[in-house]
Design goal:
Helix content is about 50%, strand content about 15%. It is an alpha/beta fold. The radius of gyration is 19 Å and the shape is globular.
Length: about 350
């Protein structure tokens, strides 16, 4: 079983990247918070593709819950295909990208800035066209990723959003949880999720489920299973799954659930129990004593920081799962590192 050396190396560097990122973001985040306090945006508009779109899902949860500010996802083709400008005056427009080179994000950011929005880009390449099109650049500091599939940059995107939210809310508890994140990521990356290998390596398709802060993790997991393991996966919220998709349930369709450590946990736990009674094989990432089909996670620390550690544990499983299924996780077929769309 040959492991993906590039992805494994990226995972090993994620904790150090998050630690380094805190200093890199200090000045630009101060500038962004100053602009936010001056103009008081009533809406946040996110713009992202792929894994970065899942980071935007995490941003939606953070901003709406912790700040009470609605968050909408931009449709970039409104700018690039239909050439329609939006009225975004005094909105916060937040673009998230690893490369900063996708034309649709660049043109949408330029449109938003021209329309009077506060524009910020969370991006790994601070010299990219997206960074240049934006008013404020928030560098990920992830460094080079050796694998085509983005892992380290996703983890650092979530960490950057956590740091932004902690500063925006001036929440000392969240700030402290963010400071503990590098050491917890290092621990999360060595947790043993091997009991999931047998079920997932034989699967033709599977479901991932999250709720609240873990919905972004479920969506990212489904994408990465497609990219690196050539395994079809669909992601749902625990609530949305009951509205139709539950009809898919059978013993042949594994489910990977990411249970949050906040008020949303009760509904996901109830769904898991219901699915198991219907004969589903459900693997659940959640804290607690070791038992069958429970994937270990770190003891709860902060409900907004814990999911970032959870995805690090999932990525470590992914390296082994790709090897078990005989796919090249470092160089997925039909993919390239920089994807450009309009």
């Amino acid at each position: 079983m040959k492991l993906a050396a590039g992805m494994e190396s990226d995972l090993g560097e994620a904790a150090a990247a998050v630690d380094r990122q805190a200093g890199l973001l200090a000045a630009p985040l101060a500038a962004l918070i100053g602009e936010i306090n001056r103009r008081r945006p009533r809406v946040v508009v996110t713009c992202a593709r792929g894994s970065s779109a899942h980071a935007a899902t995490f941003a939606k949860y953070l901003f709406e819950l912790r700040l009470g500010i609605p968050v909408a996802a931009a449709a970039p083709n409104i700018a690039t295909v239909y050439r329609r400008a939006l009225d975004l005056k005094d909105h916060l427009f937040l673009a998230i990208s690893q490369s900063g080179r996708s034309d649709d994000l660049i043109e949408t950011a330029a449109m938003a800035r021209a329309a009077g929005a506060i524009t910020a880009a969370i991006v790994n390449d601070s010299q990219s066209p997206l960074a240049q099109a934006s008013q404020i650049v928030l560098p990920l500091g992830a460094g080079t990723e050796r694998s085509v599939a983005a892992t380290k940059s996703f983890v650092t995107s979530l960490a950057a959003l956590l740091q932004l939210t902690a500063l925006w809310t001036d929440d000392p508890v969240m700030k402290a949880a963010h400071a503990r994140l590098p050491s917890r990521l290092a621990q999360a990356g060595i947790l043993d999720w091997d009991q999931a290998l047998a079920a997932l390596s034989r699967a033709d398709s599977l479901i991932t489920i999250g709720r609240g802060p873990t919905l972004a993790i479920a969506r990212e997991a489904a994408l990465k299973l497609k990219e690196t393991c050539e395994l079809h996966a669909e992601a749902f919220s625990a609530a949305e799954f009951r509205h139709g998709p539950i009809a898919l349930i059978s013993s042949a369709l594994p489910i990977l659930a990411f249970n949050p450590c906040d008020d949303a946990a009760a509904s996901l736990t109830a769904l898991v129990g219901d699915l198991r009674r219907k004969g589903a094989r459900v693997l659940v990432a959640e804290p607690g004593s070791a038992q069958s089909d429970r994937l270990p996670v770190l003891p709860p620390d902060h409900p907004d920081a814990d999911p970032i550690c959870m995805v690090q544990s999932f990525y470590a499983l992914l390296v082994k799962l790709a090897a078990r299924r005989g796919t090249d996780a470092d160089r997925p077929r039909h993919l390239q590192k920089v994807t450009r769309t309009r």
